[in-house]
Amino acid sequence: MLSLTGLSRAQPNSAASISVQLDSPLHKVSPMLYGLMTEEINFSYDGGLYAEKIRNRTFSGRWHSQPAHWFLFEQGNSSGTMEIDDTTGPSEALPSSLLINAVKADSANSIGVYNEGYWGMAVHPDTTYRASFYAKTDQSNMGTVSVELVSNDTGKVLASTKSSAISADWKKYDVTLQTGKIKPGAQNHLRLTVAHSGKVWLSLVSLFPPTYKNRENGNRLDLMEKMHAMNPTFLRLPGGNYLEGDEIQDRFDWKTTIGPLVDRPTHPSPWRYQSSDGMGLLEFLEWTEDLNIEPVLAVYAGYSLKGAHINAGPFLNPFVQDALDEIEFATGGPDTKWGAKRAELGHPKPFPLHYVEIGNEDWFDRSGSYEARFAQFDKAIKAKYPGLKTIATMPLKKTKPDMQDDHYYLRAVESYKHASQYDSADRNGPKIFIGEWATREGSPTPNLNAALGDAALMTGFERNSDLILMTSYAPLFVNVNPGGMQWESDLIGYDAMSSYGSPSYYAQVLFAKYLGDTVPTSTATNLPERFFYSVTNASTKGKIYLKLVNGSSMPQAINVRIDGGKALKSEGVVETLGGTNPTETNTVTEPERIIPVKAALQNIKSTFEHTVPAYSIQILELSTN
Ligand code: AHR
Fold it and tell me: pLDDT tens digit string along 49-107?
């Protein structure tokens, strides 16, 4: 028997069965059960979701005086140099720039620089690209900067334009580039050249393709669509370790991530590269708006990854104030200081916010300071925002938080064991947020075995969704190019041109698509090893969703019995995600090897037999008359 308290596995020669009692509901399904979590890791934003195509646009990455990912271009008889100049930049936040010293140049012999992008630069036919840069010159007659998209393979110019004449003071230049009937491809670069000798300084060079919902500083279309297809309900932001930073000064200091890009100084991510901060706090919030989901805002709580922490007390107050200001920036009306700032930045409407997470994985803080740090934040947040629920990042002894964030990174065999972990958990403690979880098998993205482990875990999430209110897989994204990945097994992979969902991605798509609203009583007998199920009822839609996970190499016949509801229609639907081999997977070149396949189910009655194929996840959608 499988119930909320236990599970008996197969006895030899006994038929496996699942029996569902629809008129005996156990509890509601949490409507926020499935959400998203991301951070700047694996080139998730820069070189990923954030649609900017220029890598190292502010020249913060460098090798001695040479900027990373930028190269000198000398046409014909031109000659000159490029080097980083730390004495001048377009703003206080960006005090450096790239100096092009054109010693010899004219209209037939131009000189300049080009950027290689994030492992290439995707360019499509009949498309308008927006480019911009900051520049100044020491010449009164330097003239314009030519901006060109160029093929790496042929040297052919795919689109070109000219800026207005460059002036002596720092100024922003905006241009558009229009492609024609070209072949789509990623082996391209952006080139900026001058046709006159003299010095030109450049900074914040930017190139954007069309973005999701046409946001000016927006996101890649394909990745937004992939997230949309997951039917998420929230986004936990901005991390993860990215929230904390290696050192306190490297934290996600949200006030330095808002406003014009030229006023954002950029900062090191703990995942070993510099974050452009193009994805700042407002962009995160707009991302939630575009997907029609709500933010779960994680605030920096005074602990950074290399162990530095600020004890509770007066020294923590400025960080608590930063968190209160951050909440006000997200939710305050235009009559508040930070709500007015948001309105000034173009978003007068407050964002919906119900959950604030205090820190991230504070069990790493061996000083034991979290309990008191949490209490200081919690008290201040609740005093100003009594309606908000706070989330602790580890079990607490003195305080009962509204919610506790548990994280799981497991192998498939461990996921199978953890699937029933919450069946007997204490219902008097805090509610549970599983803010990071994943079955980690497969690189860069998880394989079928991982998807089977994930699906087993998700049956447990659903069965216990009176306690587990929210879950979000991590990490969500990986740039699959060499050097792109810092963490193995990431849900969605991509390069400059295209993206794909892993088998684990499709497992989540299915579980969220067939969520249901109530968990009815159910029992199971003689389920074999590596077999898992959950059942939910969507009574208003007249649907019952039976989720079956067979992690074994053998097909499994199950006797299903549905009692206590209206008669079932004889035709149902089954969606199957499976394969022949647990290490099978999807890749950027074979993106749809393992995807859900939909079929009709016939002869459904209150009792019926169903066989679940080996290595597969199936959702049976049954309809009532
Ligand atoms: O998801 C990758 C990392 O795992 C997160 O940044 C961190 O919170 C966890 O340890």
Answer: 999 999 999 999 999 999 999 999 999 999 999 999 999 999 999 999 999 999 999 99
pLDDT value at residue 4: 36
pLDDT band of 9, cuts 50, 70, 90: low
Question: To test ligand 1's pocket by mutation, which of 436, 487, 488, 492 has the most ligand atoms within 8 angstroms of CB?
Answer: 436
Classify residue 69 as exposed, middle or buried by CB count within 10 Å of its CB (0-12, 13-18, 19+): middle
Structure tokens belonging to residue 277: 């901060």
* Per-residue pLDDT, 10: 54
Which residue has its alpha carbon closest to ligand 1 atom 8? 240
Burial 512-536 (b: 16+ CB within 10 A, else e): bbbbbbbbbbbebbbbeebbbbbbb
Among protein residues, the one whose CA lies closest to atom 2 of ligand 1? 475
The number of the ligand 1 atom at minimal distance from the alpha carbon of 270 is 6
Quick: pLDDT tens for 228-239. 999 999 999 999
Query: Ligand 1 pocket test: which of 304, 407, 408, 485 has the largest number of ligand atoms within 8 Å of its C-beta?
Result: 407
Give CA 56 to chain center in angstroms: 21
Do 267 and 245 form a contact (C-beta atoms < 8 A)? yes
Residues 6+ apart with CB under 8 A from 483: none
- Measured between alpha carbons, how far is 172 from 166 in angstroms, rounded to an integer? 10
* Residue 477, phi then psi, degrees to nearest 5: -125, 150
Output the ligand 1 site: residues, CB below 6 A. 39, 41, 239-241, 360-361, 436, 474-475, 487
Distance from C-alpha of 17 to C-alpha of 446, rounded to nearest angstrom: 30
pLDDT of residue 5: 32
Query: Could you tell me the distance, in angstroms and rounded to a whole number, from the CA of residue 15 to the centre of ligand 1?
Result: 42
Reply yes or no on whether the pLDDT at 457 is more than 60. Answer: yes
- Express the helix, strand and coil content of the chain in percent, nearest 5 each: 20, 35, 45
Cis peptide leading into residue 613 (ω within 30°): no
Q: Residue 288 C-alpha to ligand 1 middle, in angstroms?
A: 21
Share of the chain above pLDDT 90, in %: 97
What's residue 6's pLDDT?
A: 37
Report the separation in Å between the CA atom of 481 and the middle of ligand 1, taken as the mean of its atom positions.
21
Q: From the alpha carbon of 241, which atom of ligand 1 is closest?
A: 6
Distance CA 527, CA 423 (A): 17
Ligand 1 atom with the shortest distance to the CA of 37:
1
